[in-house]
Amino acid sequence: MQAAMDEHDDHDPTTPVEGGQKGVSAADFNDEPAIGTAPGECGGGGRGGGGGDSMRGSIAERRAVKCGFRAEKISPVGSPVVVVVEEEEECPAAFVMIPPGMSPTALLDSPIFLPNSQLSPTTGSFSLPHISHEHSIASTLNPVNEDRGENAGSVFRLKPHEVLDSLPDFSSLENKVSSPCNLAQRPDVDYQALFTVDLPLDFEFSAEFSEENTAKNCAVDSVNDVKVSNILIVNDNCGNMQMRCCSDRDGDKSSSLVLKEPAHGEGSRTHNLFEGDLKETNPPLGMVRTSEDGYNWRKYGQKQVKGSEYPRSYYKCTNPNCQVKKVVERSYDGQITEIIYKGVHSHPKPQPTRRPLAGSALPFDEVLEKSEGGGLVWRKIEDTLKDIKLGCEWRTDCLERTSSASGVTELSEPLSPPTQGKSSVGAFESSETPELSSTLATSHDENDDGVTQRSMSLGEEAYDEESQSKRRKTESSILESNLASRADREPPGKHNHEVPASRNNNHVNLSSGSTAANAQLPFALSRNTHIPKPETQIQDVAPRFGRKQPESHNEYLLRPSFLGSFSNEMKFASPSLYLMKFPPLQNPYASFGVTPRTGSIDTILPDFPMSLPWSLPTSTNISLAGFDYNTNDGKPIGPVQSFLSGQQLKENNMRFLRPKLEQKDDNLHDACLPTVDHANASSSSSSSLYHQVMGNFPS
DNA sequence: AGCCTTTGACCAGCG
DNA sequence: TCGCTGGTCAAAGGC
Ligand SMILES: [Zn+2]
């Protein structure tokens, strides 16, 4: 046992070392292990037993996935996206293809996992009032659930034929995504069907997504029902990164989310998401070093698992009250090939600002950029955002980001719904309530390095404070200097805002009585879970994020940003399991490349959390992948709905083309965008928007 | 001093 | 019952 393990300890080229990264290994999946350090993975040995059951199952699934399980195809960048739905008895899972530009972390935080109140707890489908589609995937999925009844959890059975020929639109994805999450919550859910959707979104996120967030989202309900859930991020051999949310069908009540990334993918190497994190050296441009998922992890073991190609590292959340664990499998070159999250954090993320120290966890959201001199430079997103403000265009190729005109949304202050005046990067806020601010705060945090602190809500700040106080001390000086510029920043200090809704959402358990704080719920709500206030549509879709409805089931909303971020493919399989693949070659970290479609502003929403540019200049149309926003009123236009609602989708025939390729011009999007079969008017409107949005993708 | 990684050994499920 | 296996423990050491 051990023998195997050791082989690779030092394998990591990039590895900095280990030891202790003092503090913090905030590992997100990227940096999982100590960031930057691709910690060796060889360790432990062991015998087995133990807790591995859930893990095993997931692994098996992963294996299946890696091996090509499913016909899903990994389309090379630029290749048409294909949605494949397959039924898998053994491995109920949802697969999400992660676009090359998206980092796992981002992915996790991505909207996809937003709790969607819309989702029907019982069915796992979106329940947008007006939207219903005969062919909707949701419909397809629903039957199963219905059969089982609420408790039954939803089982999604997608028939291949249903999906294969038709490419799902975002709404489909949404459904899929959400559904899975919902299902995950339910212990008794039997996820048998697996369906996959490939999204061709072209822009990439530079923002950080936290795995936890994703997990959180998924786990929203799970808190109530699920004891354990897992998130798996896996790299398949095909060069794609996959993320899965898994729940144990057995009643284990566990769910997991898995992200896989191709370790070997040719492209993966150069553009590997993780690589950047793992390797401080030479990460791809545009790559975000979201080293953190926002949580601190301690590695407690490493082992070469028989079925795994690479050694697995076992991490525990450092929070004493938190039992979340994650298993990271890394290739020898330091690429993360697979990540499994188990459980849900019962606490807020440690304050982000605290991990900027070099060598240790990467500060959040740093982006690799070319320096003027041509060299690569890690730059904080915050800075990046500034650039964005100036009007930057992030190229999907991740290799370059050019500044272009426009003004734009200030991420730092940004995108807030008109009413709020604040914008959240990437976060949607459903209501004006404090949550919104929270959300915003969260967003900021990520982007700003804690300008607004990611809220630690529900008195859990204390935890962070204490636990990290030390760290802060050491880092404080650094941070301060960095933060000094920000007016709103306060010393290690009081939050000037209410508890972020996101937190609340993230940790449903905290707010909701039903939840057990300690319960290991697999998915946590993402901090970005908030839907921008804006409105009606959105509210309709996801009105109740935040504490207001903590009890809400695990509802996942696909975040537009998230969706949009997928350049390549997304796959969603069974409810419980999400598998995301990151296509190789594109820089995962690449920021979103949102290009203005009409010459109007258009913002670039670099960061994942970015979210919707609610605060964009008036009259501007922002187009994110899959989203169209009318800045005038700050309301998202159709696409959002379609996205959010998911119900709209149902379209059997959806075809996604990769935005990059497609979005040459406005007209293009039609061709490229998924073809939606508009069964009903409601859906059609959405889709139209969708198309518009899609059209906006930068080519 | 504290936190983390490393890593051999151990635990416990499973066939 | 044995062996395999995966997960975990915990001492040692690094930063
Ligand atoms: Zn935790």
Write the layout of secondary structure elements.
Elements: H1 2-6, H2 52-66, E1 85-87, E2 94-97, H3 104-109, H4 137-152, H5 160-164, H6 170-185, E3 193-197, H7 211-225, E4 228-235, E5 241-246, E6 254-260, H8 266-271, H9 273-278, E7 297-304, E8 311-317, E9 325-330, E10 336-342, E11 366-370, E12 376-380, H10 381-391, E13 392-394, E14 401-403, H11 434-449, H12 461-483, H13 501-506, H14 508-511, H15 535-541, H16 560-565, E15 577-581, E16 621-624, E17 627-630, E18 635-637, H17 639-645, H18 659-662, H19 666-672, H20 681-696
Parallel strand pairs: 2-3, 2-15, 4-6
Antiparallel strand pairs: 1-3, 2-5, 4-10, 5-6, 6-10, 7-8, 8-9, 9-10, 11-12, 13-14, 16-17, 17-18
Helix pairs in contact: 6-7, 6-17, 10-11, 15-17, 17-20, 19-20
The site of zinc ion has 7 residues, from loops.
This protein binds a DNA duplex (15 and 15 nucleotides) through α1, α2, β7 and β8.
Structure in words:
The protein has 699 residues and is of the alpha+beta class. The strands form four sheets. Strands 1, 2, 3, 4, 5, 6, 7, 8, 9, 10 and 15 form an eleven-stranded mixed β-sheet that branches. It has helices at residues 2-6, 52-66, 104-109, 137-152, 160-164, 170-185, 211-225, 266-271, 273-278, 381-391, 434-449, 461-483, 501-506, 508-511, 535-541, 560-565, 639-645, 659-662, 666-672, 681-696; strands at 85-87, 94-97, 193-197, 228-235, 241-246, 254-260, 297-304, 311-317, 325-330, 336-342, 366-370, 376-380, 392-394, 401-403, 577-581, 621-624, 627-630, 635-637. Helices cover 28% and strands 13% of the residues. Bound molecules: zinc ion. Residues 295, 317, 319, 322, 324, 345, 347 line the site of zinc ion. It binds a DNA duplex (15 and 15 nucleotides) through α1, α2, β7 and β8.
